[in-house]
Design brief:
The chain has 223 residues and is of the alpha/beta class. The chain has one domain (4-129, 159-221): Spore Coat Polysaccharide Biosynthesis Protein SpsA, Chain A (Alpha-Beta Complex), CATH 3.90.550. The protein contains seven helices and twelve strands. It has helices at 33-44, 59-68, 84-92, 112-124, 166-172, 184-189, 210-221; strands spanning 4-9, 27-28, 31-32, 49-54, 76-79, 99-104, 127-133, 138-143, 146-150, 156-158, 162-165, 196-199. Strands 1, 4, 5, 6, 7, 10, 11 and 12 form an eight-stranded mixed beta sheet that branches. Strand 4 (49-54), helix 2 (59-68) and strand 5 (76-79) form a beta-alpha-beta unit. Helix 1 (33-44) packs across helix 4 (112-124). The relative contact order is 0.18. Bound molecules: cytidine-5'-triphosphate (CTP) and ligand LQXTBERG. Its EC number is 2.7.7.60. Belongs to the IspD/TarI cytidylyltransferase family. IspD subfamily. This is 2-C-methyl-D-erythritol 4-phosphate cytidylyltransferase. One of its GO terms (molecular function) is 2-C-methyl-D-erythritol 4-phosphate cytidylyltransferase activity.
Length: 223
């Protein structure tokens, strides 16, 4: 098994949540989102190297939060960047070789089985991402208010962890930032590398709006 690391990106402001406290620090069922995310990877592999990317403005706050919650899982802090892309890049600066996962700090419900599925596939493929089907019908906007139906059987919704050979991801992240880089797979693909899809999970939600916090409470309670 190759050396394994995870970069947990939590350098964002959480503007869509509309809360003064960035969403990664908000408790779900009594525990901050970010602690749940870190625990998910520690329970997958207690030896995994964990790099946590945090905004400079909240690094002291995070240390206090860890003390208050008696949170002792070892991790190294990296500096948050202007966008997710820049935060990942800062985290990558602290990784040497092996296989690396990039995880949104605000996806706290990734199961051990799914994390394992992603890492195991990455032993064979250069770039691996978890995806799920769309249960809604989908439309593409064509011109102003005009639209057309999309064949949803061809669509997959993309999640994290996104897992890569470290040397390939580092090389990909040497490129200039583009707005179309909404995840890590898009950066690697721009370098001409194929991305391998594995099964994601409907409960692996990204906490984005206040409704997601309520859904998160239900997921924790197993309802
Ligand atoms: N400069 C940034 C922006 C985002 N992220 C992280 O990337 C993940 C996914 O981003 P998103 O859900 O968009 O988080 P925010 O940018 O915080 O949210 P918003 O867009 O609502 O402001 C989050 O864990 C977020 O903290 C990051 O590390 N650095
Ligand atoms: C990386 C991601 O979670 C995959 O679905 C997503 O692209 C992040 O998007 P956001 O706009 O930064 O929330």
């Amino acid at each position: 098994m190759s050396n394994r690391s995870v970069i947990i990106v939590a350098g964002g402001k959480g503007l869509r949540m509309g809360s003064d406290l960035p969403k990664q620090f908000i408790p779900v069922s009594g525990k901050p989102v970010l602690m749940r995310t870190i625990e998910a990877f520690h329970s997958y592999d207690s030896n995994i190297d964990i790099i946590l990317v945090l905004p400079y403005s909240h690094q002291v706050y995070w240390k206090e939060l860890c003390a208050n919650y008696h949170f002792g899982i070892p991790h190294t802090i990296a500096m948050g960047g202007e966008t997710r892309f820049h935060s990942v890049k800062n985290g990558l600066g602290l990784i040497n070789g092996g296989i690396v996962a990039i995880q949104d700090g605000v996806r706290p419900f990734a199961s051990k089985e799914m994390i394992e599925r992603c890492f195991d596939a990455a032993e064979r493929y250069h770039a691996v991402i978890p995806v799920i089907d769309s249960t809604d019908s989908l439309r593409e906007m064509t011109d102003g208010t005009k639209s057309r139906i999309i064949d949803r059987s061809k669509i997959r919704l993309v999640q994290t962890p996104q897992v890569f050979h470290t040397d390939i991801l580092k090389k990909a992240y040497e490129t200039e930032f583009k707005d179309t880089f909404t995840d890590d797979a898009s950066v690697v693909e721009a370098m001409g590398i194929d991305v391998h899809l594995v099964k994601g999970e409907v409960t692996n939600i990204k906490i984005t709006t206040p409704l997601d916090l309520k859904i998160g409470e239900l997921i924790v309670r197993g309802e």
